[in-house]
Specification:
alpha/beta, 5-stranded parallel sheet, 134 residues
Length: 134
């Protein structure tokens, strides 16, 4: 199964963080896809915001699952999650322990994972990978 990994666009300043997160998703048994890494190559590629979001929508449609971290206010990422919800994709929402998730975030989520350290998500996501592959 292919996972659309949401990430904040920071012109490559968060490349290491994105690569680590993508590695955790692969370690969990999913095929990873990150728009910022795989389409934009960590650079601003789209001048037209509508073109950007239409391309994101197209790429989400090619994935089976979307994962979003709600720890920090995820405006753009939340839009991607809404697109995935509209496309009936599975959504995994994660958040650092102590983060208050809004009912709207819980309402679109197929699974919610709280973590102390980001590595804590691997066993739970690995379980989902096996469960959803069946």
């Amino acid at each position: 199964m292919k996972v659309f990994i949401t990430a904040s666009f920071r012109e490559g300043r968060n490349k290491e963080e994105i690569e680590k997160f993508c590695g955790l998703i692969r370690k969990s048994g999913f095929k990873d896809f990150c728009f910022i890494r795989d389409i934009e190559n960590y650079q601003k590629k789209f001048e037209d915001p509508k073109e950007l979001m239409n391309r994101a929508k197209e790429e989400i449609s090619k994935c089976d699952v979307l994962i979003i971290d709600f720890t920090n206010k995820p405006t753009g990422r939340a839009i991607e999650a809404g697109i995935a919800f509209d496309q009936n994709k599975k959504i995994i929402s994660i958040a650092k322990k102590g983060t208050k998730l809004k009912d709207t975030a819980k309402g679109i989520s197929d699974f919610v994972i709280e973590y102390k350290n980001i590595e804590d998500i691997v066993p739970k996501i690995k379980h989902l990978s096996k469960k959803w592959e069946k």
